[in-house]
Amino acid sequence: MNPPDRYSADAAGILALYMRLGTDTEPERLSITSLGAWEGETTDLTRSLSQVSFGVRHANGVTMPWTTGVEPAQALADNSRLPGTATWNGDLIGFPPTLDGVQGDAEISVNLGTMNGRADFTGLENEDGSTWGDRDLGYAITVGTNYLRSTGGDTGTVNGQFYGPNHEGVGGSVERVDLTAAFGARRQ
């Protein structure tokens, strides 16, 4: 599953507005040629697990992670079906600046009493099987209603959202200078 078409159109529009047009561009000077050359191809990595689909798309010089799924029926903190700590396991896929694929394992764990936890990405490898970086990334996270964000750990940022009627899935992004990735995981 590729990201919905609206994401592609949004990314192309944002690219044009923020990267290709000068701040002094007058509307009457806009034309197809003023936007410069656009690539006709995209490079996609995609996966689906349980209640979440996720991937990374590279087009026109922009690499963009995405996730999609069914929104939960309630806030994670209000889900009485979950024990004190909940864990989701899955995959991470992404692109470094060279656009050679990177993949590895994802584990998200949340203490439902504190709504804090960890996002750990392990066994990271390049598409040729060689080790990516030191193989592991780890982040402290905090959880809001049905979203998560990093609060510390390795460089970069992690953002995510829980999916499925009862939080069966989680998906999100890892964005660093050397990697743009998406992850998806299912609750254990």
- How would you sum up the major sheet? 8 strands, antiparallel, barrel
What value does the average pLDDT take?
A: 90
| Helix share bin | under 10%
Terminal CA distance: 24 Å
Strand content: over 45%
Could you characterize the architecture of this molecule?
This protein has one helix at 5-20; strands at residues 43-49, 52-59, 62-69, 85-95, 102-111, 116-126, 137-143, 147-153, 157-163, 169-176, 179-187. The radius of gyration is 18 Å and the shape is globular. 9% of the residues lie in helices and 49% in strands. It has 1 helix and 11 strands, in the order αβββββββββββ. With 188 residues, it is mainly beta. Strands 4-5-6-7-8-9-10-11 form an 8-stranded antiparallel β-barrel. Strands 1-2-3 form a 3-stranded antiparallel β-sheet, covered by helices on one side. The longest helix is centred in the first third of the chain and has 16 residues, at 5-20. The protein has one domain: Porin, CATH 2.40.160.90.
What structural keywords apply?
188 residues; mainly beta; Porin; three-stranded antiparallel beta sheet; 1 helix; 9% helix; globular
Concise synopsis of the structure shown:
This protein has 188 residues and is mainly beta. The protein has one helix spanning 5-20, and strands at 43-49, 52-59, 62-69, 85-95, 102-111, 116-126, 137-143, 147-153, 157-163, 169-176, 179-187.
Helix and strand arrangement:
Layout (H helix, E strand, L loop, with lengths): L4 H16 L22 E7 L2 E8 L2 E8 L15 E11 L6 E10 L4 E11 L10 E7 L3 E7 L3 E7 L5 E8 L2 E9 L1
